[in-house]
Amino acid sequence: MKVVPLGAGQDVGRSCVLVTLGGKTIMFDCGMHMGYNDERRFPDFNYITTEGDFTSRIDAVVITHFHLDHCGALPHFTEQRGYHGPIYMTPPTKAICPILLEDFRKVAIERKGETGFFTSQHIKDCMKKVVPLHLHETVWVDDELELRAYYAGHVLGAAMVYARCGNESVVYTGDYNMTPDRHLGAAWIDKVRPDVLITETTYGTTIRDSKRSRERDFLEKVHRCVLRGGKVLIPCFALGRAQELCILIDSYWERMGLTVPVYFSAGLTEKANRYYKLFINWTNQKVKESFVNRNPFDFKYIKPWSRDYVDLPGPMVVFATPGMLHIGMSLEVFRKWAPDERNMLIMPGYCVAGTVGAKVLSGMKVVEIDQYSQVQVNIDVQNLSFSAHADAKGIMELIRQASPRNVVLVHGEKSRMSYLKSKIMGEFGCPCYDPANGELLEIETGQDVRALMSDQLFQAAWAKEQERRQKSAVPSDDSVVPAATPITQLPVRGVLLLGDGKRPARLLDPSEFDLDDIPVVSASGIEADGRSDSIVAADTEELTPSSASDQVVFSTRRIFDGAELAERMGLSSSVDVAAAALLAIRELLLIDPATQPKDVDEISGKRASVVRVGRSIELSVPAKTAECELPSLYVSWAWEEEELATQVLVIINRVLG
Asked: What's the rounded Cα separation, in Å, for the pair 595 and 592?
């Protein structure tokens, strides 16, 4: 599988990751970088092709949610660069995305005077290519590539996406939140065991304190500021954290009987309420239940904002967009209020490097707003994390849920990724990568072997596990008896017979194994427990012949009727039937140059101890045991000589009958 970040590789913003699996290529997200105003704003699409034929090279584009750092470059890519293939996103994302794109376009063109930007018509034409992707619904892009969305929390309509093509699969998380809040639930995914999990790491080194203490701290700071006559500016995005904090402020104002005016500047409040009503099933259970009696997004104490209010005397609280202070009303209000030390700026979310918000949080006292103006920062700056991103604990929990074979870190700073990378490899024992933008990452993928387990094998494994638990439950001396726990994992050791297309693979007890049932196949990715008497099926990467310490060996013991074979071969009762059979097998092996034995140990007259074929195949006569007094032959071979071993087994069956 190939993974290439065109954006968000060791960086936050401009999310865009190309993944090639099973011969199909998917572009996950197509965002813009809020810290740039030049060509660096968009992902480097020239990496894909310089000829402009993107449709033949990309099978699908998947947008995880409506934030501009995940969808902002979409109209540019489709209408200006020429991609005409399908675009997949959830219904809430499809509804809200064009509104935010149009709002940003107006700011870029009408206020900043930028040229060459996408137009309103470009946005409309882009949205016509969108195919809705509903939660837990499997959508087939074509006959081979399937997509499935899982709830991601974060914002209304945000989704994690599972993609599968052939034997390869990937989960791309986008932005997600593992902690439920006042209006959205927590992210959740099945144990899909993908080959690769691509996860965001915005807060990869942070473990947040409790949500209740954060809310209390936020309300206390706001209350303290307005009591001293100051103004509070809270930059936030129009949908998501805005609703979360507005619910918090509105309920607090009602509880405390406050009359200080609270304003929301977005101009999207009414539209936001409309979409929350339309997609109420994407909110949490509490909102769904209260929605019947009262819309929790109809705020009693929060009023629409007007530019004329910015110079009004007296305390007030203003929610202004966007959340990073890089453009728009939040930057305009900040410019006016920043010099006054009575005022307060509360930054509730993450700020991309290069934005005014990031500069203020870094402690700069003089901030350059643009190339023509600067502002003195005397305002009280508070950074209270109400970000809807998963923290380090949440990221580890999602990895535990999905159980991937490999993890790729994106959408985070390199320093944070390095810490998280070592923690993931240490706790889960799986490879972890943090590629930079434009860096090609090639990941070897394994293959699951799905097999039908026999009743006999399952009953034997279950009985063995029960016996083990009973022994471990016996207390020693005065120790406490451990509490009983359900059996969630059952180690099974058996013989795996791979299917031939018509019959499914089967996992059998060694006593059920018949060499005549072996299909002629080339086995790879099967792990065996050294030189054991049985084959063990496992889900692992394909091993190379050079990894001698990890050599995969198959073995079996072929039991046969000694009296019947002695009669057929005309042997006397004094002859060792097993040794005579091994010698006869050796003679047949000599006929074919491909199966000629390399060497034979202890051949003396009619007796042979070990016959070796190829590099790894060994035939020997094991000692009789109390459990099995019948004559038998022991055969073992390495997985890379599976086809040659099959030929040898055919000859063995011919001799033994």
From this structure: 5
